């Protein structure tokens, strides 16, 4: 399969489309945790109960169409190969916990992959809406519509005083996790991020790496999300997060401008060296890839590198992950083989971009 065809099939909307403030915010996500009243929570349920939950959702919702998101396809974890599940994790469509530990787990996935509903993870139901750019309110609106749709057929575990009941006490209440994925290279380069993160934590928010809890902030990409789910409404939680993200956007843009004005030659040198590494390397590790992609994306956003889409960062951060590499190249790869194939894939993707630009220039002339 050609890389272009593979990308056409593999790219989720948040990876290939731009949204508001997408020079800083790569994606916005809303996740709602829910449980069915008549069953024990997945962490203590029997195999028979877990299978019954999965059967219910297959019968009730698989291949059903919901409003503008289209048809929902049920993916059963037990029917999938490890590489297939790893790809879904790398695309942020399911959690590592669902991929690794849930024999009776499943995922209802929309056609455009903006919606994924995880089944029998830590909770019976985890509704996730993932939008490109800064669209938290839009993602919340979609999640609430899906929540209402499911509740037409499901009795949720709910307490009048505590709210929605979940396996983990930290999700009790609204069951809401709101998060944004942000690219903050200037705040990292100037070390301002070291002061900002503790301040964000004091506001009841948490800063994590690209794959959430326990992951590194590779490529200067951070996830900012709420910690508190109890005692606040969904609207208040999202508004608080929006306020902090707007401040981060302002600070990152101002720091980029100041950095460019004070150190233009050094910054351009850094950007072009990273661009050269991606363009010509024959072997490249994942951490170096992330660093170079971050530099190039910053160069694109500042106008240092022209005629290359900024979405190339979103795409290549995912396409160069182990699961995607192995899926594209057709089978398991040892770490050193992945480094060689990663470099080849990056070169091919950049060549596609250059060919596209040449075609557009020829078409205009």
From TrEMBL:
Gene3D superfamilies xrefs: Glutamine synthetase/guanido kinase, catalytic domain
Domain of life: Bacteria
Alphabetical list of CDD domains matching this protein: bacterial_phosphagen_kinase
UniProt key word Nucleotide-binding: yes
Regulation: Appears to be allosterically activated by the binding of pArg-containing polypeptides to the pArg-binding pocket localized in the C-terminal domain of McsB.
Family indicated by similarity: Belongs to the ATP:guanido phosphotransferase family.
GO biological process, one term: phosphocreatine biosynthetic process
Species: Metabacillus litoralis
Pfam families recorded: ATP-gua_Ptrans
Keywords: Allosteric enzyme, ATP-binding, Kinase, Nucleotide-binding, Transferase
Functional description taken from the UniProt entry: Catalyzes the specific phosphorylation of arginine residues in a large number of proteins. Is part of the bacterial stress response system. Protein arginine phosphorylation has a physiologically important role and is involved in the regulation of many critical cellular processes, such as protein homeostasis, motility, competence, and stringent and stress responses, by regulating gene expression and protein activity.
Keyword set includes Translocase: no
SUPFAM superfamilies, per the entry: Glutamine synthetase/guanido kinase
Phosphagen kinase C-terminal domain residues: 24-255
Binding-site list for ATP: 27-31, 92, 126, 177-181, 208-213
EC number: 2.7.14.1
Gene name of the record: mcsB
Gene Ontology CC terms: extracellular space
This protein's name: Protein-arginine kinase
């Amino acid at each position: 399969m050609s890389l272009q065809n593979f990308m056409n099939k593999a790219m989720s909307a948040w990876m290939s489309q731009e949204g508001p403030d997408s020079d800083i915010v790569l994606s916005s996500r809303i996740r709602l945790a829910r449980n069915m009243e008549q069953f024990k929570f997945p962490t203590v349920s029997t195999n028979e109960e877990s299978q019954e939950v999965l059967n219910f959702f297959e019968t009730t919702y698989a291949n059903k169409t919901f409003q503008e998101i289209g048809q929902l396809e049920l993916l059963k974890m037990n029917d999938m190969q490890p590489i297939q599940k790893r790809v879904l994790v790398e695309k942020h469509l399911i959690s590592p916990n669902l991929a690794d530990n849930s024999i009776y787990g499943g995922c209802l996935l929309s056609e455009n992959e903006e919606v994924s509903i995880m089944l029998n993870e830590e909770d019976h139901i985890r509704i996730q809406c993932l939008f490109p750019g800064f669209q938290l309110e839009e993602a919340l609106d979609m999640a609430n519509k899906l929540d209402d749709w499911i509740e037409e057929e499901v009795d949720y575990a709910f307490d009048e005083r505590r709210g929605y009941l979940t396996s983990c006490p930290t999700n009790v209440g609204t069951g809401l996790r709101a998060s944004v994925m942000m690219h903050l290279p200037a705040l990292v380069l100037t070390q301002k991020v070291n002061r900002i993160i503790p301040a964000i934590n004091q506001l009841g928010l948490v800063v994590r790496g690209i794959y959430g809890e326990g992951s590194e902030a590779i490529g200067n990409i951070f996830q900012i999300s709420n910690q508190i789910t109890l005692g606040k409404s969904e609207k208040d939680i999202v508004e608080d997060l929006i306020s902090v993200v707007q401040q981060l956007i302002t600070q990152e843009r101002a720091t980029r401008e100041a950095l460019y004005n004070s150190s233009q030659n050094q910054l351009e040198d850094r950007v072009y060296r990273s661009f050269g590494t991606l363009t010509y390397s024959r072997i490249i590790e994942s951490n170096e890839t992330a660093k170079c992609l971050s530099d190039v994306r910053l160069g694109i956003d500042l106008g240092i590198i022209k005629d290359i889409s900024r979405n190339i960062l979103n795409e290549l951060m995912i396409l160069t992950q182990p699961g995607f590499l192995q899926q594209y190249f057709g089978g398991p790869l040892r770490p050193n083989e992945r480094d060689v194939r990663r470099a080849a894939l990056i070169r091919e993707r950049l060549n596609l971009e250059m060919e596209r630009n040449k075609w557009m220039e020829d078409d205009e002339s």
